[in-house]
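Query structure, 451 tokens:
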């Protein structure tokens, strides 16, 4: 008999069906055995009655056995209906069971209610914990974030390209880069598709990419990973960095709308509320942000080159209280604080036209206007003490006419973590990498890596 998906069983009341999936939970009650059965479309309760021909086979089933089950879809009696639960009004009377694959006894309780692992154990057993509804919900939300980023970019006429992972130079500067032994020569794992998205922009005008990027973050924090999914965009013919801000705001707004629309049950299950994006997200210069924090808390960070995590948390709190917005843009960082490609403000060249978007106390996104004048780029390359030979491919594009341009990028994991209110970014990465972990803990790593 053809397989019916569990999510479609409601349409088959009174009919014999065949379903395939996993044993989610087994419950023995007197002479009857109950199973929750699970496939990609949902779960359903099945019952094996005492005189059922399936009783013999039912005896050997444990959680996570893979089975093909034949039976009759029955309406549940009124008193047994579970209101609001998918398939809560039906039950499968099981008449035949075929084991497709057995499962060893589980090392922990994987049931929806009983699952209660510390993060390190959850990560050590990702191969199993991924099956839990909480984890599946998190990664469903993440896939909608990435999908809706793509959809929005395409709707705005951005062209998708694939950026290389192996690069001859570091785009973002700093020491946070993995060196690769490349046939005896040195190369790097890409920190960002930055230079490539700028090159590709010169051919296609509006471009985006969904790429793995690598950061050799030497510390273990709750918001840093060494491998992330970077959602990048770059656009030509802007008048100022504010056009980039507006495009990034519209992108985030679309993503939030789509997550709200397509993940309502996941958000409810995870107890998450979407961050509030008001009509126009508050936008402050770094100096204004520092003044605000000083005025509100008395903590004087005026003149600092950047906001630290505490400043970011406080600024978000202040903005939330003042405007109701969970988001705030901060622009105008000291020019030398940011990478060489960021455009200095012509009126105040010591500050640049770079920006960050913060939400719920954490940076989600960076971007801004770029230097598009070749001579100015060369000056920056010299000032930032970079080797022009290593970025010759990038420089070549800028010798041949590049319009005023800018772009932005955000990390899919940060966004997932902050939308869902997760405490640790590792929960928002299916196979997180940090300085202590590649699948399992690296030798010599401290046992406690939950920071
Ligand atoms: P930046 O370095 O700020 O900017 O990175 C952009 C966004 O990527 C995320 N992110 C991280 N998430 C988790 N762990 C990390 N180690 C990590 N590093 C970065 C954050 C951050 O806001 N080329 C510029 C972007 C641009 O100007 O277009 C860049 O890479 O969400």
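Result returned for the query:
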């Amino acid at each position: 008999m053809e397989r019916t998906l569990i999510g479609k069983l409601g349409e088959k009341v009174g009919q014999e069906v065949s379903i395939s999936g996993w044993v989610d939970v087994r419950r023995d009650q007197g002479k009857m055995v109950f199973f929750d059965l699970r496939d990609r479309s949902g779960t359903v309760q099945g019952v094996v009655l005492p005189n059922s021909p399936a009783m013999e086979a039912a005896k050997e089933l444990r959680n996570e056995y893979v089975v093909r089950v034949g039976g009759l879809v029955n309406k549940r009696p009124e008193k047994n209906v579970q209101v609001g639960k998918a398939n809560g009004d039906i039950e499968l009377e099981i008449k035949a069971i075929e084991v497709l694959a057995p499962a060893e006894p589980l090392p922990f309780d994987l049931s929806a209610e009983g699952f209660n692992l510390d993060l390190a154990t959850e990560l050590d057993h990702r191969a199993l914990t991924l099956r839990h509804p909480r984890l599946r919900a998190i990664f469903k939300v993440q896939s909608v974030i990435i999908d809706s980023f793509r959809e929005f970019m395409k709707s705005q006429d951005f062209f998708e390209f694939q950026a290389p992972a192996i690069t001859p130079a570091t785009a973002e500067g700093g020491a946070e880069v993995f060196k690769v032994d490349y046939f005896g020569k040195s190369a790097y794992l890409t920190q960002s598709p930055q230079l490539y998205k700028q090159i590709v922009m010169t051919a296609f005008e509006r471009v985006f990419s969904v790429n793995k990027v690598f950061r050799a973050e030497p510390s273990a924090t709750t918001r840093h990973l060494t491998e992330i999914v970077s959602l990048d965009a770059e656009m030509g013919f802007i008048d100022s960095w504010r056009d980039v801000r507006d495009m990034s705001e519209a992108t985030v707004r679309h993503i939030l709308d789509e997550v709200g629309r397509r993940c309502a049950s996941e958000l409810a299950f995870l107890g998450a509320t979407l961050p509030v994006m008001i009509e126009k997200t508050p936008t402050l210069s770094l100096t204004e942000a520092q003044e605000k924090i000083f005025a509100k808390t008395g903590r004087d960070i005026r003149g600092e080159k950047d906001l630290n995590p505490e400043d970011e948390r406080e600024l978000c709190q202040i903005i939330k209280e003042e405007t109701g917005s969970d988001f705030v843009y901060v622009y105008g960082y000291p020019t030398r604080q940011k990478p060489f490609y960021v455009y200095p403000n012509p009126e105040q060249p010591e500050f640049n036209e770079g920006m960050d978007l913060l939400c719920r106390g954490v940076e989600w996104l960076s971007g801004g206007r770029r230097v598009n004048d070749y001579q100015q780029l060369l000056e920056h390359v010299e000032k930032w003490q970079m080797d022009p030979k290593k970025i010759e491919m990038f420089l070549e594009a800028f010798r041949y006419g590049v319009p005023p341009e800018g772009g932005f990028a955000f990390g899919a994991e940060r966004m997932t973590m902050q939308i869902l209110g997760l405490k640790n970014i590792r929960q928002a990465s299916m196979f997180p990498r940090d300085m202590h972990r590649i699948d399992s803990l690296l030798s010599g790593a401290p046992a406690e890596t939950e920071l």
